[in-house]
Amino acid sequence: MLTLTWYGHATWLLETARHKVLVDPFFDHNPSSPVKAAEIDATYILVSHGHEDHMADAASIANRCGATLVSNFEIASWFAKKHGVKNTIGMNLGGTVSVPFGKVKLTIAFHSSTLPDGTTGGNPGGFLIAAEGQRIYFACDTALFSDMQLIRTGGLDVAVLPIGDHFTMGPDDALTAVKLLGCRKVLPSHFNTWPPIAQDPVAWANRVRQETTAEPILLKPGESSVL
């Protein structure tokens, strides 16, 4: 059984039978998060790109929990060198790694990726996770791209898509993404944290129901869903 929890903005926790997989940890300065970084445990931490609102608390959680940090090569190396994170896995786009809970593939994303100190964050990415018989796609911060239709190859159970617009896909493009991905369930992300990315998730979910075959799942920060 897989459980997915949203902590506001673009921070997610995927729980398997034995592992806690944290995606883009941003707690302490996240105005929508109901908890702080010190309250979160993880065995794996996935960082999609170098922007602070996606990795601000990755080092503190990784070092406290002994979690393995998975990201592109540049970001993984930066965390090891700058923050003393002992367990890292550096990848590149299109690569897949086998981990105790399943497999993680680093997918393309159309965005930018500069680390807080100005260091290059390499290529931004998303994550396609295979765990406990399901395939879950975290698009993370990205524009719409037509190759999303390739991600559906082999079937896609769950997609987590940004809908905030301004910095990522907006509601219209995210709806197109649902159609390209052919996912069974979809959850919106990266919205309503600040005024520039304010959106109406209920209106978007209604469009998903009307225009696609996917089941939209809306969570409030801190809420969970069994996938």
Give structural attributes.
227 residues; seven-stranded mixed sheet; 27% strand; Metallo-beta-lactamase, Chain A; alpha/beta; 22% helix; 6 helices; globular
What would you say about this model in short?
The chain has 227 residues and is α/β, with parallel strands linked by helices.
CATH class: Alpha Beta
Q: Count of DSSP E strands?
A: 14
Q: Sketch the topology as an H/E string, one letter per element.
A: EEEEHHEHEEEEEHEHEHEE
Extract low-pLDDT stretches: none
Strand content: 25-35%
Number of helices: 6
Question: What's the shape?
Answer: globular
Number of domains: 1
Sheet/helix structural class:
alpha/beta
Most strands sheet:
7 strands, mixed
CATH domain fold name? Metallo-beta-lactamase, Chain A
Largest beta sheet: strand ordering: 6-5-4-3-2-1-14
Notes on the structure:
- The protein has 227 residues and is α/β, with parallel strands linked by helices.
- It has a single domain (3-226), classed as Ribonuclease Z/Hydroxyacylglutathione hydrolase-like (Metallo-beta-lactamase, Chain A, 4-Layer Sandwich).
- Helix content is 22%, strand content 27%.
- It is built from six helices and 14 strands.
- Strands 6-5-4-3-2-1-14 form a seven-stranded mixed β-sheet, covered by helices on one side. A seven-stranded mixed β-sheet has the order 7-8-9-10-11-12-13.
- Helix 5 packs parallel to helix 6.
- The model has no long low-confidence stretch (mean pLDDT 98).
